[in-house]
Amino acid sequence: MNNISNEELNKYRNDTSGCSGVVHFNNAGASLPPDVVIDTVVAYLKEEATYGGYETEYKNIARIEDTYRLIAELIGAGKDEVAIFENASAAWGTAFKGLTFEPGDEIITCEMEYVTNLIGLSDVRKKGVKVVVINNDEFGNFPLAELVDAINPRTKLILVTHIPSSGGGILPINEIGKIAARYGVLYMVDACQTAGQYPIDVKAIQCDILSATGRKYLRAPRGTGFLFVKKSVQDRLSPILMDFLAASNVSLDGYTLRSDARRFELYEKSRALTLGLGKAVEYALNIGVDRIWQRVQYLADLTRSEFSSIPGVTVHDIGSEKCGIVTFSVAGIDSMLVRNKLVEHGINVSFGGAQATPIYMEKHQLQGIVRASLHYYNTENEIYSMCSLLKQIAKSDSTASVLTE
Predict the structure, then answer these.
(1) Are the C-beta atoms of 247 and 255 separated by less than 8 Å?
(2) Cα–chain-centroid distance for residue 51?
(3) Of 79, 172, 271, 379, which residue is most buried, by most CB within 10 angstroms?
């Protein structure tokens, strides 16, 4: 559904200096931020440089605090359930490593898990924890009945990625949440590609833990992310690193752990980037994530439709619900070369190697794919330009001779 008018679209593009210089289809890597986000970061850094770091923080403490409120509004959480991190990997790892597992415990996950998450799962397997992978069915859908069958008294955690890095499908996290709640199993969601693209309501999801980044569909600066930990389960996670932000009444005899999710943070981080994250969340909320999601679906569907008409181009996305990430390959041409040719001509896409989502890629015998990730500020004409270039690439016998003018 194309629910954003041309007038509104032009405003968003005028708000984004990057749109004038490049066609950006790498939003699943890092989006082009709105100018107001960059201006917020730069202005704060300048103030630090001329006024003092601690003094500037004190002066802007209300704005910094408001970032927590904005994130809570974005995901339907309480402000005391939000912690801010430098990236999603730190958020995810802090939560996962804060959980306690015993030999014989079981974790259920999916085939779409990102490589960083698999490193964590690999570590606990070495300690005797069983990791059960639920594979998608032949149509690319997550089989909820298999999840139910896999749950047993030893199941301690259901851990899934909502939208994968190297595929266009989506897991049914609300339905998974209902199952987790029914059986009383802790439930953790990686929403790295979700935040800013797809509406999140942690109450509807019924998740206990959720991690996300700022740089992707939220259009925040790199070096930003956040963690949601439900109030009722915060005491079940042990902070893996602590400083005085997490604790009070500190002595050699012990300390008192603070009563909110910020117990999982460390004090020292960039306040400028925190404000940039808050401004990006505010920008998305002003548009409406529901509306963003509708526009992203429309553009992604258009892209897949156009790709299907190009001989030699194969779209690899499957599943009943698809996201704004479109993965594809060109017959006979290495996907990295395809990516490079598009980038050389001002069209930003990315290469997804087998290492990013190894279980999924091995299952589908993919060594690499090209990833075009659409956002609401992209246009139909940008899609047509990419397709025109792909037609020339696909017709060429050798990428060395493609578009050398």
Answers:
(1) yes
(2) 35
(3) 271
Task: For residue 249, give both structure tokens.
Answer: 């009444």
- Give 206's contacts (C-beta < 8 A, 6+ positions apart): 174, 177, 178, 180, 181, 187
Side-chain half-sphere exposure of 207, counting CA atoms within 13 A: 28
For the segment 64-107, what is each residue's pLDDT rounded down to a tens digit? 999 999 999 999 999 999 999 999 999 999 999 999 999 999 99
Write down the pLDDT at residue 186: 98
**Is residue 159 within a helix (H) or strand (E), and if so which, with residue range?**
strand 155-161
Length of the chain, please?
Answer: 405
CA gap 138, 225 in Å, rounded: 34
Q: Would you state the pLDDT for residue 75? A: 98
Beta-ladder partners of 251 = 254
**Residue 45, amino acid:** L
Record the tokens describing residue 278, joined without a space: 């808050």
Q: Give the pair of three-digit tokens for residue 138.
A: 């032949």
Structural domains in the chain plus CATH codes: 6-33+288-396 (3.90.1150.10), 37-286 (3.40.640.10)
Q: How many other CB atoms are found less than 10 A from the CB of residue 232?
A: 9
Share of the chain above pLDDT 70, in %: 98
Look up residue 58 and give its two tokens. Answer: 């004190």
> Cα–Cα distance between 316 and 337 in angstroms, integer?
18
Laid out side by side, the sheet with 325-330 consists of 313-315, 325-330, 368-373, 350-353
CB–CB of 293/370 below 8 Å?
no
Give the helix, strand, coil percentages of the chain, each rounded to 5: 45, 20, 40
The CA distance from 20 to 79, in Å, is 37
